[in-house]
């Protein structure tokens, strides 16, 4: 059984890839918030996602004292394919703390990962790449608008579930919505980040959901075993997520 690994820094709507040559150096820091100094980076397009070739682990990640507050927030992603058949996901943002928390939709960044067809000129040198990134829920509409030149799109699955630009969650309260996609056939993985700016502060990541899309555009959960290992490693202070697909 082959394990394909994609490593990237997830900071709200933004992704920065870690080269396959150096990603294993982060494994000893699994479950810890660490700060890293990026020493060498490749960016094929500016603006656009980048690939880190070299970095140095500095130490524990610093505490950032500005919004958005992340300490008590939990992001939960679940597949929701039964209603429209197309790739759709229910996203829950839960306040697990004991005081109200303000949530900003512009800090909620859904990302869709898929097969990487260009490991030479693209920002990822691994087998997967983000088909959809650099978008937040404040920009999202409930219409199937094209998001990139490949024709992929994402939108609110129900116009009645559009999240406000900013809202408060009381203790134990959740905000919920559904996001749908138009994607090519093949295996993909969905994940959501919250907070952190452009790798400037701490961020939170949801669980990842792996699924397959057939030639008719209908989605089912992936039949192969897929796990996601989250390494709390920060560049500035951005979480590093290693996505392991078996």
Terminal-residue CA separation: 7 Å
Number of helices: 0
Series of secondary-structure elements, N-terminal to C-terminal: EEEEEEEEEEEEEEEEEEE
Radius of gyration: 17 Å
Description:
The protein is mainly β and 246 residues long. It has a single domain, classed as Intracellular proteinase inhibitor BsuPI (Immunoglobulin-like, Sandwich), CATH 2.60.40. It contains no helices and 19 strands. The strands form four sheets. A seven-stranded mixed beta sheet has the order 17-19-1-2-4-3-18, with no helix packed on it. Strand 5 and strand 6 form a beta hairpin. The radius of gyration is 17 Å and the shape is globular. It starts with a strand and ends with a strand. The C terminus is likely disordered.
The gist of it:
The chain is mostly beta strands and 246 residues long. It has no helices and 19 strands.
What order do the helices and strands come in, and which of them pair?
Blueprint: E1 4-11, E2 14-18, E3 34-42, E4 50-60, E5 73-79, E6 88-95, E7 101-104, E8 108-115, E9 128-132, E10 153-156, E11 166-169, E12 174-182, E13 186-194, E14 204-205, E15 209-213, E16 219-221, E17 226-231, E18 233-235, E19 239-245
Parallel strand pairs: 2-4, 3-18
Antiparallel strand pairs: 1-2, 1-19, 3-4, 5-6, 6-12, 7-11, 8-9, 8-13, 10-12, 13-14, 13-15, 15-16, 17-19
């Amino acid at each position: 059984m082959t394990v394909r690994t994609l490593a990237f820094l997830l900071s709200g709507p933004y992704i920065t890839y870690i080269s396959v040559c150096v990603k294993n150096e982060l494994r000893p820091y699994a479950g810890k918030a660490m700060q890293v100094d990026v020493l060498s980076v490749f960016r094929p397009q500016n603006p656009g996602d980048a690939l880190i070739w070299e970095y140095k682990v500095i130490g524990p990640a610093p505490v950032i004292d500005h919004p958005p507050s992340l300490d008590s927030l939990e992001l939960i992603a679940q597949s929701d394919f039964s209603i429209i058949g197309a790739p759709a996901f229910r996203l829950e943002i839960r306040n697990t703390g004991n005081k109200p928390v303000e949530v900003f939709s512009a800090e909620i960044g859904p990302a869709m990962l898929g097969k990487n067809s260009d490991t030479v000129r693209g920002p990822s040198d691994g087998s997967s790449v983000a088909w959809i990134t650099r978008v937040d829920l404040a920009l999202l509409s409930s219409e199937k608008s094209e998001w990139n030149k490949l024709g992929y799109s994402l939108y609110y699955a129900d116009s009645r579930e559009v999240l406000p630009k900013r809202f408060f969650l009381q203790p134990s309260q959740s905000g919920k919505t559904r996001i749908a996609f138009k994607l090519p056939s093949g295996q993909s993985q969905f994940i959501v980040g919250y907070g952190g700016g452009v790798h400037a502060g701490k961020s939170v990541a949801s669980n990842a959901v792996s699924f397959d899309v057939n030639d008719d555009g209908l989605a089912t959960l992936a039949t192969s075993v897929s796990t996601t290992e989250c390494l709390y490693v920060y560049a500035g202070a951005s979480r590093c997520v290693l996505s392991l697909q078996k």
